[in-house]
Design goal:
One of its GO terms (biological process) is epigenetic regulation of gene expression. With 387 residues, the protein is an alpha/beta fold. The chain has a single domain, classed as 3-Layer(aba) Sandwich (Arginase, Chain A), CATH 3.40.800. It has eleven helices and eight strands. Helix 1 crosses helix 9 and helix 4 packs across helix 5.
Length: 387
């Protein structure tokens, strides 16, 4: 399906490390890249390096005094609670600016490749730090790399960019940065803010001309309900908006094993969502697709498999879900963690869902979530919420 694909990678991307005991452990991306390499997925893409984002690039979405404050923390490692560094979620560490700027630079490299036409798709699995605010670190995120990539493409002349966020947590930082900008359509599918951080992402948050879209799903939602909601909301909006570029964030913390949230997806359901977004990139955005990672805190069972499937899908060579995990990779897991590695690339599920066009069940909390979102934003896009 795809022509040219880039994976942006530098081993230094694992330097984004909040220290022992923190849920966001860099080994998750290390194991992802190792699994993709051993399965031959990286043989089908161009792996390219990146440079850190410069101050002017960071300042497209972040306040300059915030960038300066992050640099001061970075120089000595001492907390600055006023900017959110030194909290339990965002511990201060020496080198935090450099590590964060490199992740932003990797997403910028992906955006440049796609916008310039050097690549049709590009992915930064270390990125997706969607909670960072203009002047505040939040939710494990210091610099908001998806927002920086979007802002850069807007500066190059993009008239319409769509951002779809499938992380279990609301994509609040990206939404906030473009809330009043009708050139950017942000769609976030996440666990209800009533039960999960950051406490935002209600359907009533609609932004400029209905371009902020929030699908707040009930705790316990699994593959079938999640896919039903996705297909009821995302394809019609993307088809109507017709973005020049599709940017997607792929936090895999929606998985049933994730320790920080309460949705119940499988790796198979997540893989199905990646394929749907790939198809929509070609259908609605001329194939221009910028892809990032995101959250995901089950470091061995979930993240490496989910994001290896993601890279394979982006490359246009999806993996057979029954593919065994390589022995060499399982040995690496044993050396780098205390966990028992999964033996195959599947959870053994065959995700199916009932399309919303078949009818609405008012008693179903997932259907109520779908209807709340459609009622809130579909009319702004000339779409009938009931059709």
């Amino acid at each position: 399906m795809s022509r040219s694909v880039r994976v942006v990678w530098d081993d230094e991307l694992t330097s984004y490390d909040f220290g022992p005991g923190h849920p966001l452990v860099p080994v998750r991306v290390e194991l992802t890249m190792a699994l993709a390499r051993e399965l031959g997925v990286l043989d089908k893409v161009e792996v390219v390096p990146c440079r850190p984002a410069g101050d002017d690039e960071l300042a497209m979405v972040h306040k300059r005094d915030y960038i300066d404050a992050v640099k001061r923390v970075s120089a000595h490692g001492r907390p600055d609670i006023a900017i959110g560094l030194g909290t339990g979620d965002n511990p201060a560490f020496a080198g935090v600016h450099e590590a964060s700027a490199l992740i932003a630079g990797a997403s910028l490299a992906a955006a440049r490749a796609v916008w310039s036409g050097e690549a049709e798709h590009a992915v930064n699995v270390a990125g997706g730090l969607h909670h960072a605010m203009p002047a505040q670190a939040s939710g494990f995120c210091v610099y908001n790399d998806p927002a920086i990539a979007i802002a850069w493409m807007l500066e190059q002349g993009a008239a319409r960019i769509a951002y779809v966020d499938v992380d279990v947590h609301h994509g609040d930082g990206v939404q906030a940065m473009f809330y009043d900008d009708p050139r950017v359509l942000t769609i976030s599918l996440h666990e209800s803010p009533r039960t999960l951080f950051p406490g935002t992402g209600f359907p009533s948050e609609t932004g400029a001309e209905g371009t902020a879209v929030n699908v707040a799903l009930p705790a316990g939602c699994g593959d079938a309900g999640w896919l039903r909601a996705f297909h009821a909301i995302v394809p019609p909006l993307l088809r109507e908006f017709r973005p020049e570029v599709l940017v997607t964030q792929h936090g895999c913390d929606s998985h049933a094993l994730d320790p920080l949230a309460h949705l119940m997806l499988s790796v198979d359901g997540q893989r199905t969502a990646y394929a749907a977004l790939h198809g929509l990139a070609h259908e609605t955005a001329g194939g221009r697709w910028v892809v990032t990672g995101g959250g995901g805190y089950e470091l061995v069972q979930v993240v490496p498999r989910a994001w290896t499937h993601l890279i394979a899908e982006v490359a246009g060579h999806p993996l057979d879900p029954g593919t065994p995990t390589p022995a060499g990779w399982r040995e690496l897991v044993g050396r780098r963690t205390t966990e028992v590695p999964p033996l195959s690339m599947t959870d053994g599920r065959s995700p199916e869902f009932r399309d919303f066009s078949t009818g609405y069940t008012p008693e179903d909390p997932i259907d109520r979530a779908i209807v709340a979102t459609r009622n809130a934003v579909f009319p702004s896009h000339g779409l009938d919420p009931l059709m």
